[in-house]
Amino acid sequence: MYYMASRIKFRPLFVLLMAVLLAALIAGCGESSQSAAAPSSTLTIYSSGDVNVQNLWNHTLIPQFKKVHPEINLKLIFAEHGVSDQSILARINAAVNANKDPGIDLIDSGPVEQAADAHLLAPMTAKDVPNMAHIDPSLIQQVHSFGVPYRASSVVLAYNSKTVANPPTTLKDLLAWIKAHPGKFTYNTPNSGGSGHAFVEAILNSHLSADSQKKFVASYDPAMESQWDAGMKELKSLSPSVYRQGFYPNGNVAVLQLLANGSIDVAPVWSDMALSYLAEHQLPDSVKLIQLDPPFSGGPAFLGIPRTTQHLAQVYTLVNWILSADVQSTIIDAINGYPGVQWSYVSQQVRDKYASIARSYGTGFSTKFGADVNKQWQTEVAGQ
């Protein structure tokens, strides 16, 4: 009787304790679910280039992305001037071949084009990255749809408006101006900087058919290089009219310095470098920038996604955000560059600010042809 009475007496307490335990268990499950919803993805980004690109990620892109996507963490691995490009490429290659996560979720410039050629990257389409629809398709084709451009720069023409009232707007006009104003123009040796290289290729292209121009961009056949003869002869004919009767500075910076001290009045320069120099008052305010028709060549910086990343959906989200109009405008202001998307998709305010150069740019020769251009120029223009 005592036993039965005890069971009857303590049954309400038992039920109460079970209820409390059950409530605690449910609450604990709820806390676990909330923990799972907390930041659970960390994307590792590999980037290479100059310190301005490092600052772009650390001070602009990463903190701004965190505000709109707190559930995704971003970690940057940066290698100045691409010193780790090949080791990162080897790491991704090994991981893809083993079908393992490489520990790198996004590549900024550096080895993207090599990785695309080796089919080490995940394909990108407008279905996964809707803002890709705003990119010039020819740029995406450069990496076989395995990447997207997210910033760029191009070679433009710089001129001192104090001494050049009516700057040339076409390559033909520029050549006429150079000959009419001997000593007031130069370009750097094409093997020492992209601005001089772009000028040389522009002259070569002016003597090529449209079909040949495409082949020099997308293929490599040394037998085609005889088509450069007319262009090289024209470049040689300019030498007496070039600064100091044929002085070609070493590097892009040297050209900007000649513009800054007034030694020359006109020169091809990189858009981002010249804009930065103007902002920092290393060039006089009288120096202006324009793009020729047809335009000098330029180059985009691509983003690529290693094929075996375990965070594909989250990386697509990041890339799509980077290609949005507001972020593209921010990138332009941060590094004085061009957008990865077409200019028409950035704000009118930004387009107005960069109106003189806010145009498409040409595509340079393939890497192997480009190297041969440098060698031939050295022999046929500078060496004679």
UniProtKB/TrEMBL annotation:
Name of the protein described by the UniProt record: Extracellular solute-binding protein
Signal peptide: 1-37
Organism: Ktedonosporobacter rubrisoli
PROSITE patterns, sorted: PROKAR_LIPOPROTEIN (PS51257)
One Pfam family linked to the record: SBP_bac_8
The keyword Signal is assigned to this record: yes
Domain of life from the UniProt record: Bacteria
Keywords: Signal
